[in-house]
Amino acid sequence: MMRLYSGTTDPYSHRCRIVLYEKGMDFEVIDVDLHNKAEDLAVINPYGKVPVLVERDLVLYEANIINEYIDERFPHPQLMPPDPVMRARARLVLHNFENDLFAQVNVIEHGGKQAAEGARVAIRDSLTQLTPILERQKYLMNDEFSMLDVAIAPLLWRLEHYDIQLPKQAAAVLKYRERLFSRPAFIDALTPTEKAMRK
Predict the structure, then answer these.
(1) pLDDT digit string, tens, across residues 163-197
(2) What does the pLDDT average to over 59-71?
(3) Where do runs of H (alpha helix) occur along 74-130?
């Protein structure tokens, strides 16, 4: 059985939980207190960070690597495109999400007040730029739920928590996030602490 060492409020761990529930697999989630990490976490991940996936003698860390492994190991439903060109494009978008969106989350959580405000604006503007895509299709790649939607869903869930408000012209993004939040796997993947982030 797969074991996922997961932070109860960590957006990267949230991504991995979503994928595991989307696949409908047997797995165990081990909650990690991010402020008081167990010593065994440092043993299995030299960086001492979550998420970490353990399956027999395989140990993986970094959410995107974990999720691609799960997707390849359990191909139904497929979350990465089967076509190599489309898969490469999806990986590039995931990389851009890390640099353009999730790097800003780190600034909000750990930076000074002025830097955090700038990061909020950057996230708001980046998400608003998705509006034309989401006016044309249900999900980010097309009308099928994919790894891109998995990657961005935890951030969309935390917008109010991070004090980010999307403008009215981003209505399609707001509708899209409600579509994501209504998926059974998304609901099942939420921890009690994450549920409390949105009243």
Answers:
(1) 999 999 999 999 999 999 999 999 999 999 999 99
(2) 96
(3) 84-97, 103-110, 113-128
* H or E element in which residue 188 lies: helix 184-189
Domain 2-78+188-195 matching CATH 3.40.30.10: the answer reads: yes
Report the percent of the chain where pLDDT is more than 70. Answer: 99
Joined tokens for residue 185: 């796997």
What 8-state DSSP symbol labels residue 183?
Answer: S
DSSP 8-state symbol, 80 = S
Cis peptide before 77, with omega less than 30 degrees from 0? Answer: yes
- Decide if domain 84-183 falls under CATH 1.20.1050.10: yes
Residues paired with residue 60 on neighbouring β-strands, in sequence order: 53
Euclidean distance between the first and the last CA atom of the chain, given in angstroms as a whole number: 34
Residue 97 has pLDDT above 90, yes or no: yes
Q: In one letter, which amino acid is 166?
A: L
Q: Are 70 and 23 in contact (CB under 8 A)?
A: yes
Closest CA to 14 of 186, 197, 192: 186
**Predicted model pTM:** 0.95
